[in-house]
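I had to read the description of the data format several times before I understood it. In essence, backbone conformation is discretised, so a fold becomes a row of integers matching the chain in length. I therefore recommend that a typical entry be quoted early in the introduction. For illustration, here is how one protein appears when written out as sequence plus structure tokens.

***
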Amino acid sequence: MLCALLAGGCATTQAAPERDSGPTPLTAAGALGDFGDVDYCSLLNVPEVAPGAVAVPTFESCHATAGPRTILVGPLAFDSDPNIKPYDYPGPVPEGVAVQQSMFNDRSACTRAITFADGNRLDLSVTDDAGDQAARCEVADAAVGSALAAITAHKVGRLTFPDRSWGRVAPCALLDNPDLDAAAGPGSQPATGLSGHSCIRGKVSLKLTVETAAPDGPSEQLGGRDAHIRAADAFCLVDTTQPAPGLPGHRELAEISVVETAGTAGDGTCALARSAAAVILPRLPTPGQP
């Protein structure tokens, strides 16, 4: 009776059904998880893409070699690249993801970029000493398909870093030191890379990874370590290595670089690189330390 008098005030109300918004655009974090321990070799189906290749996971990429051919999966990048252009990738692509090509160095390399919905991209490249760009790009497209298949199947592997591995080191902590003011520039602040294994502070940068090629340049003692120093265009680089814990037959690499903002690196730039190495290298852990 009361409900009747209230003219339906006791009627049950129902919320309007939510509209189906469709698939969620795939971000790099959604695809790869924590960027700091991605096993990029888990994204490369070696038997299909590069039969017989030897794949080595670094801290921020996968480096696979088969004779003169090298396939590189990674690293992640967040900066824009004017060399990257759209192209007609033939395979399926998740929602919000674009596959693009790079026109840089396209006479000896075929480079693809998987760009996620948040703007971060995963670079993949194929290089060799042959002149067949079409063959390189066929392998590059196969590598893209392999990576997207692993991502959509949630088969992205994780790296583990044993004790004393440089994979456990926070590189920005090593650059946050007033003794680097002269080399880095006054007032500069450390900024970490996407993977967490690299850092840049002003003119100084530090990258920690797994060595994939023997270092160039003369050897000398810097910061209590055997190091190699070399100039390359606007940079002077200092490299040192240690046996890779948990990866027999390989070595971990610490690369320090100082950029010459006024042009080509010379003796003055390398003097700053040496001074930066003297500060940074003693703070790196060594296998067997207590």
User: Anything to note?
Assistant: Confidence is low (pLDDT under 50) at residues 1-17.
